[in-house]
Amino acid sequence: MTLKSFRDAAHGVRSRAISSVHLMDVLKDHFLLSITRRLESRLNSQAGMLPCRKHFLIDEQECNNGSSLGSATVSVAAPGVSPGASGSFSVRRDAERGTRDACAPQFPSRFHSCPTRKHLFYRAAGKPALRSADILVCGLWGLSSPHFRTMMRCALICIVVFAVLEYGMDLSHGQVNAAFDGRPWNISTGNLSVSFIQASPIGAFPKPNYLEAPPSVESLVRLKNLGLVADEDYVAWGAVEREPGKWDWQQHDAVEHNLHAAGMKYVAYIWAHFPPAWLKEKRTLMRCLEHNKETSYLSIFDPQTIEWYDHFYRNLHDHFGDRIDNVYACILGPYGEGNYPLEVKSWVNMGHCHEGYWCGDDYAIRAFQTAMQKKYSRISRLNAAWGTHFKSFAEVRPLAEISENFKPSPAAFPTAQDKRRWLDFIGWYHQAIIDFAEKSLQTVLKYFPAEKVRMKPGGNAGGVNPVSWGTYCPGYAKMAGKYGVVLQPADCQGAVFGDKWVGTAYQYYGVKECTEPAGDLDEHAFVRRMFSDASCGARQLFSYQFEQHCTNIQKYVHLFTGEPGETGVAVYCPTTLYRLGASLQPTISAGWPLRDLCEFDVLDELLIRDGALNTRRYQALLIFQGDIVEQDILDKIAAFRRAGGKMIVFGDAPIKNVEGKLWRETPKLVHLSTVAKNGKWLKELSIELGGIRGVDGKLDGLWTCRRSRQMFVFNSKGKPVETIVDGESITIEPYAIWMNEAAARKN
Questions:
Q1: What percent of the chain has pLDDT over 70?
Q2: H helices present in 227-265, as ranges
Q3: Gap between the Cα atoms of 592 and 578, Å rounded
Q4: I need a surface site. Which of 250, 487, 575, 740 has the fewest CB within 10 A?
Q5: What is the largest CA-CA distance in the chain?
Q6: Rounded CA gap, 276 and 290, in Å?
Q7: Omega before residue 208 within 30° of 0, cis
Q8: Cα-Cα end-to-end distance for the chain
């Protein structure tokens, strides 16, 4: 069989959209036919030889052209041995399992004397097996010298072809197209079985006896060869236990089977937060403060909810066992993530639902009372802090002013006591869902090892999520760090402030980060996202648009090492101001031009309180919004300045604590121009930050990241940019990442 015939075969198979792995199998089968025919023509010229037998089957039917082979049987007689005698053998290939087995041949004595015969056979599935290349060896053995030179040419073709097949050469185009191994970065995607949930009794569009077809093995193999490692299957409690104690896993068994048949990981993304339709007792639903109405989410404040989670995860484990490669610890909603109820009625029939404050059930109110009693001990202390007149903690309630049209803002809390009352409430509200997430995580760890467990804590909406959502990412990082699980925050879209707000916390608390964008990204935004993720220290990558972006994933994902970019610059995240309902856009927006000037981290008040702000880590702290800051945080910042850290504030707005007192350290800080489009503040800042680690000092549209000897640069502009890096003149194309040799992918 000539190289041209291999190309023709490849072209014919590709015209039928068969996967590259299937193509390899087809080409191997064509090769077996070719070798068999060559042996037949050579051996038939010898006395006493009969034609070789060739029989190919597809689903018990005979196939003539050799494509899409299900099994193959080839019989070859050694010279001087009659067909069917001791020198014949057969090979059977199982296309689905990829195993090969053969009956043990009884070769003539001169073959048995061959010292290399032990290398010809190996075992698969517990049976003796013969490699397809052994056919050639057996055919060559003992041939008379006139045929030897010709058959050596065949052997050379054999070696070349098998090398090509093993390393994935695209024969129809004459170029190498090796399968990409995405396992080091656990490249994953998701959204399987969504329509099954939608059609279930809890779904938005109930439909009896509906099953969602799993992706075909062929399509999954193709994605695997592009680098995809895992796929998330959405498993909803209310869809699989439709009657008490009657579990139906048919939908998810089919998905799991196909993923594993394709060599991919099966990931169970759990929706345990929406109860089955039959569960009417022994459960509490989330209740809003605005309308005092329930939604179809289980209450995170009722201890029974965790017992129901345990009920689900126990049955999940009993059914699947080790067939689950990864599993998510469910939190709340709407997608089992770390935020309070939101309305997504196209997925699940959740009834009354809206953005707001969901702590109106009896368990929630008691939990709030307990938390305030723990903080203040005496009701008199709480009254002094809040300006209230409660007689006991049993009278304490979440804020009465929360109504349908309520929106928090600093102006909505004019006095220091009003501010303290709100901050106590919203701080508890944010921590309550984190505490529930930890209980869920502990439940899952009863049945699955930590290396298999993951959690989605929600996202950052490109900066920080609305305060009512409860998605406080640094708090999730602090909680999860000690468990060794992977966290997968959403909204990782290359929005530098939001990415750094999450990434800095994950690094500080030792959390493994897998990034996920909440929505679609075009190519430019996706490459920016990959640069930002890599510079934040992400280790793994998730994308709903894997196939669309697989080329750039293959090109840049090796930069996901778990190590962040080196920097001595930190940006202060005004957490107190955020919780009071103020917009953080001045700080978030400043992050974009600042990233052109330098690499930076984002320090939330939680990290500062826990000791992250020190001169061993940072040389400068930038404050864009310091209107209202908790006093203990101001004390930490002052200590940083006294230890030699540089404090830089923008504009002349006064810095006050929650009680309204001016911060006495303000005159000692470096004051620069207010952030404005004219860029004056950036030029001043460039001078102040000169010589600090992570600062390139250039306003050229290039974002630079250095990690020891590694350096990579993202061109954020829509045109090529010429620059000099380490004495070398380079040109970086628009929205592309350049990297030095130390950062380049090693083949």
A1: 76
A2: 237-240, 250-261
A3: 19
A4: 250
A5: 113
A6: 26
A7: no
A8: 32
Write out pLDDT tens, residues 432-449: 999 999 999 999 999 999
Mean pLDDT of 36-49: 40
For 35, 36, 75, 127, 185, the CA distances from 103, given in Å and listed in that order, are: 20, 18, 11, 9, 41
Q: CA–CA separation, 317 vs 448, rounded Å?
A: 8
CA distances from 507 to 215, 258, 602, 611, 615 (A): 36, 36, 11, 13, 17
SS3 1: coil
Strand order in the sheet with 569-572: 601-603, 569-572, 620-623, 646-650, 670-672
What is the rounded distance in angstroms from the CA atom of residue 407 to the CA atom of residue 738? 45
Q: What is the full DSSP assignment across 465-515?
A: --GGG---HHHHHHHHGGGT-EE--S--SS-HHHHHHHHHHHHHHT-EEEE
Residue with tokens 């022994």: 282
Tokens of 585: 């856009």
> Tell me, what's the pLDDT at 149?
52
Q: Are the C-beta atoms of residues 232 and 196 closer than 8 Å to each other?
A: no
Distance CA 359, CA 671 (A): 42
Phi-psi domain of 562 (left: phi exceeds 0; alpha: psi -120 through 50; beta: other): left
Residues linked to residue 129 through DSSP beta bridges, in sequence order: 122
DSSP 52: P
Mean pLDDT for 306-335 is 97
The tens digit of pLDDT for each residue in 124-144 reads 333 333 333 333 333 333 444
Burial class (CB in 10 A: 0-12, 13-18, 19+), 306: middle
* H-type alpha helices, 121-262: 133-140, 145-166, 194-199, 217-226, 237-240, 250-261
Residues 6+ apart with CB under 8 A from 318: none
* Residue 358: HSE in the Cβ half-sphere, 13 Å Cα cutoff: 31
